């Protein structure tokens, strides 16, 4: 190629520039192929390390983008373009893009952290970012939740990361609590024994930690008992509902009254206001 260029009526400087441009193009083509290979190898390595698919795909694209940016700088240097102004221009452009996409970059950063540290997984029932529901999907920008009334909420990851995250079934079990009032004339010991029998009769209520019933307070209308029991996360609402229904039926059968909460009656004195049509 050098001999071919030497036969052309070109100056040595022009020939040198053309050679450098040719080498730059060759470097760019080979570099793009190598960058894709390196990024794909890194992605396969992350898959073998059980890295989340979403995160591994993002990191693969990030590695590829960084390599391409470095490759472009090297190719331009090979072509004779000064690197200092180029680096400054890239830095200024990156700063401008970062300021313009500040909110999106915050969501992206929190998305990476949520995927890496996994405070919740798909299928968990959580409360985060002011929303409560079942996690359907976690992306780099948003987390999708299905709320109890079947509405779908798309919550930005930055809002989730900046707030408390409550995971209701991460440990696999949940505790429910209920309160009942027993009349002062009723046998309190018998009432508590009936409740313990209902605990034992329901296989969904776990024996460890053990369920219990305690006297919480003495109100104006009766003795307040508090019931606490652990179940598997999927059984919590069903077990609580069935327990309260069985408790009411058993108490009625045994002649134990469930006292209503105290109510206040406020009497207001004064002349009614006149209404004009």
Automatic annotation (TrEMBL):
InterPro entries: LSM_dom_sf, MS_channel_1st, MS_channel_C, MSC_TM_helix, MscS_archaea/bacteria_type, MscS_beta-dom_sf, MscS_channel_2nd, MscS_channel_C_sf. The chain crosses the membrane at residues 15-36, 57-76, 88-117. Residues 179-257 form the Mechanosensitive ion channel MscS C-terminal domain. Residues 104-170 form the Mechanosensitive ion channel MscS domain. Gene3D superfamilies: 1.10.287.1260, 2.30.30.60, 3.30.70.100. Keywords: Cell inner membrane, Cell membrane, Ion channel, Ion transport, Membrane, Transmembrane, Transmembrane helix, Transport. PANTHER family: SMALL-CONDUCTANCE MECHANOSENSITIVE CHANNEL. Belongs to the MscS (TC 1.A.23) family. This is Small-conductance mechanosensitive channel. It comes from Dyella japonica DSM 16301.
